[in-house]
Write a structure and sequence with these properties.
Strand content of chain B: 15-25%
Distance between the termini of chain A: 13 Å
CATH class of chain A: Alpha Beta
Strand content of chain A: 15-25%
CATH class of the largest domain in chain B: Alpha Beta
Helix content of chain B: 40-55%
Shape of chain A: globular
CATH topology of the largest domain in chain B: Beta-Lactamase
Oligomer: heterodimer
Number of strands of chain B: 12
Number of domains of chain B: 3
Strand order of the largest sheet of chain A: 2-1-3-4-5
Largest sheet of chain A: 5 strands, parallel
Shape of chain B: rod-shaped
Radius of gyration of chain B: 54 Å
Distance between the termini of chain B: 58 Å
CATH architecture of the largest domain in chain B: 2-Layer Sandwich
CATH superfamily of the largest domain in chain B: PAS domain
Amino acid sequence: MNRKKILIIDDDPSFLEICSAILEESDYQVDTASSSQEGLEKLVSERPDLLLLDIMMTTMDEGLNFATSMRQSEHLHKIPIMIVSAQPDAEKGYTRSVDKEMDWISADMFMEKPINPQDLLQNIRLLIG
Amino acid sequence: MKWFKGLEVKQKIAVSTVLVVLFVATVSWVSIQYVVLPNLTNKITNRGGIIAKCIARRAQQYLTVDDRPNLLDAIFSEKWMEPYVVYVFIIDEVDGVIAHTLLQPFPQSLIGVNLLPADHIQQTRLVKTSLGPVYDTAMAIRQESHRIGTVRVGLSKVLVDETMDRLIHIFLAVLALVISIALVLTHWFSHQITGPILQLSNLTRDLISCNFQACAHLGKRVACWLTKDCSQEICPAYDRGRPPCWLLDNTPPSCTDEAGTLASKLEECRRCQVYSENVGDEIERLAAAFCHMIHKLDLYQEELKLTNEELRKLNRNYMKMLRFVSHELKAPIANSSMSAQALLQSIFGTLTPPQEKMVRLIYSNLSSSVEMVKNYLDLSRIETGELLFQPRRLHLASEVVAPTLNALSALIDASRMRVEDQTDEGVILEGDEELLRVVYGNLIGNACKYGREGGVLRLRAQDQGAIYRLEVWNDGPGVAEEKMGQLFQKFSRIQQSQKGATKGTGLGLFISRTIVELHGGKMWAEGVKGEWINFVMELPRSDAS
């Protein structure tokens, strides 16, 4: 059976490791990237079925900018995006701006860290089956 | 007397002075009219008697020898000596005129107006004559006990009255002068008193409105030039208490001064604080001391401002550090929590009961830590003024209460509390969804932590006209009434967790109240210790709803 591919982009290696373990245990093929640059390369080469993206990496807007450019790309714009963030109520109300941007970047899901693994799996199933 | 109380001090002094002067003038007028003037008139009319007596004495000898020329000479000489005398005449025993001073034909009617009875020696009457009103005095001329004639002297009443009128005019002029001088002096005197008082009053008003620059126009207080020049810390003249200025009492300063500079520096000395507080009367000294006080308050306020700014800066830095630390802690705690939860959810295989117990304990502690970190992040935002408030029109039940209950379902289940959600569907607020969720999250979380296990948690929201009343009630042990206020203080931990869970930060209620106040509402707690506790919020009604 062809396993679904999930790419996780986050600058926190610990999160990448935990998330990968949980998803692999649930029979997903997981790839990780710790920067948006690396993520873009893997996105192009691996063509994942879902992208788990942390919006706040090295800079506040790194994740958002990444998502924006991805949505503008002819080849990548169809890949569903699940945004994960340690700060839902992010600095200076970033959450609200994220919410506002959600339509614009057409992110499909937003989850706040700490993420409940069962909820994560359920949401992934909703997005990619 | 109400109108008098309403007057200013200056006017009161002026009114009092005028009243006193008018009283004195009235008393003087009455005494002049009824005592002085009658006395003076008597004195003048008595003068007629004296003249008549004099003439009678001289006329006696001339009448005896019938010496008419000398008789005439006697009456004329007396008439000319006294300006008030209108006439003098002598009549014999049968009332025939022997001699008179009139330059016109003698009016016979004069004789009958003041006839002297036989047993009288002297008699004075005010009579009306063809020469005008006259004080007529009749004096008997006697030889031994036999009356040989009568001297009649007439004093002009018009002249006497003119004299009295002149006296009254002089009195009135003096009175007017005295009143004018009194008023001018009163005005000057009251100005001396009320000027500084008015200034003090204005300064006090400035002080109330925190205008500490109010005394600036009174001249900048200078440090003693002598002290400056001598490079001494204290002025040699003022080293003991508050003696008068050395320039005033000629106390030579202990340090030398260049010749000829004293006079030029005198003006500077006049602006000296010590000088101004030791010269002038009590009121001026009071005003100077008051200004000095304001000046000092200004300095203290400046110091206080600087200190406050410093403290604010320190607090801001402290809060930034707190945020940094909380922020850094959040990621590893969230990761650990996720791992523990994955283990509990048997994603990596089923745990043995002891393993599950341990992992559940780890997860519980990590969850508390997540809450703590969130609270510290909120606190740092509140303290640094960076808590973003973005209100919009929202449905309380569906957009705040239901999602919060959903998010906290695990905690509610663990506490086995029965939730009675009576939130009115029609409650539409102008509020910040995210922040209101924090408030409900804190209150529901507290109810689960500190309420009775298996008890009731009741959420209520009612439209009460001008406001919305929101309540989070539970039948837990609550707190004593006198400690209700302390619940909302920062880092206060009054309630004891019923389940022995990790201690809270003591920030949840402080943050909640801050958020409610940010919405223009108020929040408090009420309850009965041991029975129930209710957290009440009153939020202004949305105009748009």
